[in-house]
Amino acid sequence: xxxxxxxxxxxxxxxxxxxxxxxxxxxxxxxxxxxxxxxxxxxxxxxxxxxxxxxxxxxxxxxxxxxxxxxxxxxxxxxxxxxxxxxxxxxxxxxxxxxxxxxxxxxxxxxxxxxxxxxxxxxxxxxxxxxxxxxxxxxxxxxxxxxxxxxxxxxxxxxxxxxxxxxxxxxxxxxxxxxxxxxxxxxxxxxxxxxxxxxxxxxxxxxxxxxxxxxxxxxxxxxxxxxxxxxxxxxxxxxxxxxxxxxxxxxxxxxxxxxxxxxxxxxxxxxxxxxxxxxxxxxxxxxxxxxxxxxxxxxxxxxxxxxxxxxxxxxxxxxxxxxxxxxxxxxxxxxxxxxxxxxxxxxxxxxxxxxxxxxxxxxxxxxxxxxxxxxxxxxxxxxxxxxxxxxxxxxxxxxxxxxxxxxxxxxxxxxxxxxxxxxxxxxxxxxxxxxxxxxxxxxxxxxxxxxxxxxxxxxxxxxxxxxxxxxxxxxxxxxxxxxxxxxxxxx
Length: 491
What we know:
Elements: E1 2-8, E2 12-21, E3 24-34, E4 38-40, E5 43-45, H1 48-64, E6 71-75, E7 81-84, E8 90-91, H2 105-109, H3 115-122, H4 131-140, H5 144-148, E9 151-154, H6 155-164, E10 169-170, H7 171-174, E11 180-181, E12 186-187, H8 189-194, E13 205-206, E14 210-214, H9 217-223, E15 229-232, H10 237-243, E16 253-257, E17 261-267, H11 274-278, E18 282-285, E19 291-297, H12 301-312, H13 319-328, H14 349-359, H15 368-394, E20 401-404, H16 411-421, E21 425-427, H17 432-444, H18 451-461, E22 465-467, H19 472-486
Parallel strand pairs: 1-6, 10-13, 16-20, 20-21
Antiparallel strand pairs: 1-2, 2-3, 4-5, 7-8, 7-9, 11-12, 14-15, 16-17, 17-19, 18-19, 21-22
């Protein structure tokens, strides 16, 4: 049985074909394409029509291979959205969550709804790029989009609408908006009313695994293909990635590692209380009736931006070259808190790292090798910090850490993470989001019984590399220095 997953990341997208035979999953990358944001008119946008074009190219490549699909689904990053007018047309290009239009908007919104109340109603970490703050920024700016808008669709929902003509929200993405009540499992009318948003923007919300139409007849004619069923998978890519964690039972800790790092554990009910708010955790919807108690960590974005800056300066390093250079640099020479707000926007990241070090009384790294080592060591140590918080909030103890996603190809980071947490790291699968997307489709079709059978099949189908911890005393001492230099405090 063949199904297709379109997995859209912050820097690239891919079409992954999945086959399920004899309780084994096989995957094949059919199509890969860049996902570059576009600066225009002082704003940063997603090139949504290019993404739709690339989805069609992926479908054509499947057709040319003579493959019959049982279904397809899309997953992507969260929080961003587009508006649909009453005539069904898209109103403008969706803003990129790193655009600056939300600067200072959190404090403005808190005058309407206090922080504690907002968290208690949504269970979501308060981050300036969340959908709620993007919408309020448009509201404060008197954007003409709001008056013309009839529906709001998250990125996968928007692309799914183009494919099928059907509009439906999806649970895992809806929970990330900070406009959805996780325990009532519906849009929070109180928040929407207090902020002056239109309730009509927010339609019905389906659970992951729900069929939401098939390819529109116009698209069938354009591409010369049949009406493939379209499924709402775990459309937030982290939800799909966690579905692919090859754990055999709960509790388990995970790290979905890529442009962003998402660390947490899977729970049956959201954990919403003052300590969770204080520690800045989120309760995001998962697949098969679960929730993801997690924290957002800035992730490999910092390294990606450094590499982009060096390329602009004429120093084109590959990622493997940067890792080799980092291994030769002095250990624990400087630390950053990856979640410092200065690291969120695009820009000259090496200079920002040096600025951070100077402001925290450290000798800043000057050359790429020292900067890369600083980033990766700081990430590994931040993972230990957040893993400790996850145990505190969940009341669970974890034997090790499951790492999934493209970031696990960074073997240096995997090993240093094991060293930092003092526990094994189980790394795999790398295509976690796409594999979880495929698994939800097979569950929806009855080919897999539930999430646990899916995880068993995933564990049997894809290699997992085990990183045993080492140099424990040296990393224990480094953790103390990391806390001191960054000003982070353990609760």
